[in-house]
Amino acid sequence: WSLPNAERYALQYADGRQTYITESNRRDIKNGSILRLTTSPDQEAERLYTGIQSKNVDVKTDSLKKLAGLSQDVTFAQEFISRNGLKQIYSIVEEGNDTGEMLAHTLKAFTELMEHDFVSWENLSTVFIKKIVSYVNMNAVDASIQQLSLSILENMVPTSRLLFELVKKEVTLDRLLTHLQSTNAELQLKAMALLIALLLSATDAERRDMMDYLREKNLRQFIHKNIIHSSEPLGDEMAHYLYVLQSVSLNLCEHRMKTSMDPYSQEQRDLLQSLRQTAFESESEVPAGSFSTERRRSLCAKEFRKLGFMNNSNPAEDLRRAPPGLLALDNMVYFSRNTPNAYSRFVLENSSREDKHECPFARSSIQLTLILCEILHIGEPCSETAQAFYPMFFGQDHFFEELFCICIQLVNKTWKEMRATQEDFDKVMQVVREQITRTLSLKPTSLELFKTRVNALNYSEILKLRQTERLHQEETLAVPVLELREKLKPELLELIRQQRLLHLCEGTLFRKISSRRRQDKLWYCRLSPNHKVLHYGDVEEGVQSPPIESLTEKIPVADMKMLLVGKECPHTKEKSSGKQNKDVLELAFSIVYDMEEYCLNFIAPTRYEFCLWTDGLNVLLGKEMTSERTQTDLDVLLSMELKLRLLDLENISIPDNPPPIPKPPSNLNFCYDFSHAEQ
């Protein structure tokens, strides 16, 4: 357009995130995008830099509001920061004269500018941080300012040990608990986010102290009553924080689990002796003087053998294996002290059985502790995206020990039902593991409910379930049935393809996971009904399924070149920092499009969504569906179809080979000969 001073102007997207067009992103412009001519980022940055210093309150507020909006754009942020704009923001906060709307815009702009990682969090002055802390600690502050302040502190905590210590000292756990009790869901969420950030950044000793304090303050009961069982449905983010809280709490057992028993530790030997005394106290009450040392030692060894220790002369040897280490001893002692009747009944009942039929209490406890540690992932790092927590965990103090008490009685019950002998020990423990995992998968809301369900799932029920699964397998392995399966496969695969494409047409909400946190940025992607174009765009929290017109970006399916998953994706290569990203790797996929120059990167909310999307995209690319979900769906559909087809053959055994076709009869000449009739 030959504008004079062209460098003062720039193009910007007119809708969506109003990003500036630069040399680096100009190739991303899609056909049909609406652009507008506006002042260039450096001019805008200069204008707002001056505007936020204005003495006129209206000009200042307007400038801050515009700054909060524009700071999401990386080009603008760079220009603004290069003019030392952050210093201006610091001074607005540090002086503390502005409150309300103006302060909210300032904090929002600060958060957005820091998100670009141009400036280190460690550069912040103590005055600035204390000011932010004061907004969290004061009562008479607007909720939106408290939310932004909590969010800033949450981003600050993981960046350095110094900042962690400062925030931990200034924002007390009591204060965070007050915010957690707020009726404002957003404020509650941000307070929980900061609490989790503090727990994850703490050392083991600090974490233990913090968890002990939270236990004293009944945080668990509060979460169980007011968050899990509140009238509002639980959001994904809160579910993730509850999962982390559960994981951190259970991981407090890790130290004991990995510590072997020290036979020279008096405290640990006393615990072992207390197990023996609680079980056989009436027999042990004989005055010490009436027995020689040798006789007493053999009596102790006999009692330890009755308790089910393999090495009865030195039972500490049984606890040398770690895991489960001392955690098994803790569990046994907890069981003997908190449910002494059940404990005595277990031990005495088995003492009176024949040797080979007795259920060894100690050996079972050690193995059961190990099984529970594996099922509950004790000692494993927290996943960055998981949301699977057990509601009953928050419904019970001493959850791990109480769960053990229920399950050790289950071991004894299952042992009797199986009429097991010592050689069957591993089989019994396998059945118990199955009983526990099957019951936990039903997500019982309380330990009482877990106890009822796990006891109802007795050995005969497990056998029935196994039998059904085995029969189902055998039924489907006969040769004619396998041939029928192969014939049905193409039709059912087509059905799965249609379902995958329909799912893509409905669309899914994805999160953007930045290097520091997993929240805030949401975007939606869906396929057009004619399967020709993928539409996507940023959306606000709480939007369920935005109309296709509101998604401004698009990729024609014809331009899609290939699908990348896991480690091959560009966005996982950038930030592969070991263990914490294992779960992100399992959910990451990317579409390469436009002459293989560009990628659209996804991180699926769940493994299920990952499977459906990767399958759907493979269908669009004309490739095979490769996810594990395709196989399970195909198996389910095939088994249903086969059952329907074989209904009439109930109780008729299907031969492996078709019956022989009989020879034609000797008088097989009844065919009418047309040729003679024509003559």
From TrEMBL:
InterPro entries: ARM-like, ARM-type_fold, ELMO_ARM, ELMO_dom, ELMO_domain-containing, PH-like_dom_sf, PH_domain. Residues 267-440 form the ELMO domain. One of its GO terms (molecular function) is SH3 domain binding. The keyword Coiled coil does not apply. GO terms for biological process: actin filament organization; apoptotic process; cell motility; phagocytosis. It holds the Pfam family ELMO_ARM. Keywords: Apoptosis, Phagocytosis, SH3-binding. The keyword Secreted does not apply. Involved in cytoskeletal rearrangements required for phagocytosis of apoptotic cells and cell motility. Acts in association with DOCK1 and CRK. Was initially proposed to be required in complex with DOCK1 to activate Rac Rho small GTPases. May enhance the guanine nucleotide exchange factor (GEF) activity of DOCK1. This is ELMO3 protein. It comes from Lanius ludovicianus.
